[in-house]
Amino acid sequence: MPNQSMLLDRRRRGATLVEFAFVVPILFLLVFGLMEFSRMAMVYHVITNAAREGSRRGIVPGGTASDVTTAVNDALAAGQVSGAVVVVTPSDLSTLNAGDPVTVSVTVNYSTVGWLPVPKFLGSKILDTESVMLREGK
Q1: CA distance linking residue 72 with residue 54, whole number of Å
Q2: Whole-angstrom Cα distance, residue 109 to residue 50?
Q3: How far apart are CA 61 and CA 93, in angstroms?
Q4: What angle do CA 63, 67, 72 make, to 5 degrees?
Q5: pTM score, two decimals?
Q6: What is the pLDDT along the chain (138 residues), one digit of tens a residue?
């Protein structure tokens, strides 16, 4: 005949299993949420730096919009971000005078750069950034 402590151990094992069943989904939700928000912060940092690099390429005398786009795409590739839309304003940088602004906008849909197969929290989030610098003298 089993003693009293063996019966309590069996009951406790069942309680532990029930507690585990309640805690594990919450734990997974937190872990995957942290992964997704961390990736979003990383991608935002990459596109911000890419816009800044593009602006720096566009403000020098002789810089063109294609130079800007190439610089942005190179920075995005280094950060493993693809599918971004780059807009350079104005589109013809040769018409600018010293002190005129050069604006570079970079936009990416998070669902194209997320690490999880199905982004749960940020699937439809659009990440966009802009960098404005003044054209240098000729």
Answers
A1: 5
A2: 16
A3: 9
A4: 125
A5: 0.79
A6: 556 665 556 666 677 888 888 999 999 989 988 888 898 999 999 999 999 999 999 999 888 999 999 999 999 999 999 999 999 999 898 888 888 999 999 999 988 887 776 666 777 889 999 999 999 875
Query: Rounded CA gap, 119 and 12, in Å?
Result: 37
Structure tokens at 22: 């309640």
**Residue ranges covered by each domain of the chain:** 4-134
Contacts of 35 (CB under 8 A, 6+ apart): 115, 116
- Residue 123 one-letter amino acid: G
Angle between helices 65-78 and 4-59 (to 10 degrees): 160
DSSP letter for 122, please.
Answer: S
**Tokens at residue 20, please?**
């585990």
CA distances from 49 to 4, 53, 106, 119 (A): 66, 6, 10, 24
- What tokens does 63 get? 């810089």
